Every structure is written in C-alpha cells, then in structure tokens.
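Q: Here's a chain of 183 amino acids. Please give me its 3D structure as tokens.
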Amino acid sequence: MSICIFPGTFNPIHRAHLKMAEFALEYYGFEKIIFIPSYLPPHKNVDKELAEHRYNMVQAAIKNIPGFEISDIEYKSEGKSYSLITVKKIIEMYNIKGKLNFIIGTDAFDKIDSWYKSDELKKLVHFIVFPRGVEIRQKAGFDYELAPMDYINISSTDVRKNHSDGTIKEVKEYIEENGLYRD
C-alpha cells in the first residue's frame, strides 16, 4: 500500500493542512494520507490539555475526505511525540518496504537536524517538503523533495488568534462549542 504520513501539532488543523494533504494524495498517487496529531510535540510549547481537542479537530476536519485517515499512535502514547518512534511503529504496522513518505513544511524541515535521533530518522523517511514561508536549505543525507505547490499563507497561530479564513467549518464549530483559544 502506498501511504504517506502527515504528523503535526495541528493546533488547530486548517485549510492549508488539507490542501497539502490533498495535493500529496493526487500528485504522488498515494492511496492514503495518515494524519498523526502529536500528543506533546518536543519542539513546541503546547498545552497538553489540548491534545484530545487537537485530535478531535483533525478527526472532524478529515472525516468525509476519501483517502484521509487519522492515527492515534502519538495521542495514545501520552508522552513526547518523537517522529522516529512514530515512523518505526508505522513501518511495522503497515509492513512498509523501503522508506516511509512523510509530509513536512519547510519551517519544520529547516530544524530537522535538531530532532530526536535525526541521523536514524533520515534512513527511514522520504520527506515531501511543502513551502511554509521559509527557504529550504540543503540537508545532507536526508531523502527529500520539494512539493511543487504554491505556498498558502495560513498558520495555526492566525487561526487561534482571530479564527481567520483558514478555519475549516467543522473545526470552527468545535472550537466554539468547546470554548477553545479564548485569551
């Protein structure tokens, strides 16, 4: 099976996330994109009390989109969400031969060298890097390609602060029903 994982904080998930996943599904011909909301991302300061909400928002956003699935692999760990551990589990679960496809933005890929055991991670993954407002720098030893998709200027920060145009209807309803992101 041709799959691609899309790990992320998704705080909250927004339209740019969906556009990236749709592009990857169609352009690369994957059978499945698996969204993996992190429980506690190691490189971001995120309230762990929001973990269940972030998971539920991703689930609401993708529930009716063919080829999209959600995994609770990181959510159930209730610890720091290290990509290497997740990748190893997914490879085993799906009996992946070769490298696992992994959607990532240029902003996160720029910091990939600082990730947990990145030297081991780069042996297991083919990164599909999407524009996120940061120029990509060469990464020695990493198997990656730039997705030929235009940058969509939507960020989770903007969605949290002002419920911007990037909000997905089901996610906006979930945020309002649960009183999230009120400061």
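Q: Can you summarize the key feature?
A: Helices lie at 15-27, 51-62, 83-93, 106-109, 118-121, 156-162, 169-178.
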